[in-house]
Write the structure tokens for this entry.
Amino acid sequence: MDSQLKARPVSPLEPDPMAGLLRPHGWGFAAVVLLQVIGGIAGLAPLLAVVELGRALLAPGPVEHRHVWTVVIAGAAGLFVRLLFTGASSGAGHLLDGHVQLSFRRRLAARLGRVPIGWFSRRRTGELANVVGQGVSAVHPLIAHFPSRPATTWSSPP
């Protein structure tokens, strides 16, 4: 009976079980990435504002105060939008992580509910607790943090 619970290689013709677990949460992943991309692009505004301030302040002739303040406000607004959207992305990622972990645990409990009672007597309590608790929690960085990393890398400078 132990052979039924061990991981087996997935053939290219069979659906990937991990994809089946994550597929229902695809829109959540897309939202996390979209929020992070918007935040990353908005984060360019302060950098562009510094460049424009340098041009405006180092240009020959009198300084146009109205232009300088417009650039400063635009840069600050971009920084605020970046903070807002990257914070929303992080929050959405952690909410998504909670939903995915709950889904994993429910599927695991359903699977363990079909195991013969004798299987449990041959296992240590810590072994099962490790799989259900720490094993499922180990996906936190993958779910909550990873989707936003490539989005940040692709949408904004380092």
Q: What stands out?
A: Residues 111 and 126 are 18 Å apart (CA to CA). The longest helix spans residues 65-113.
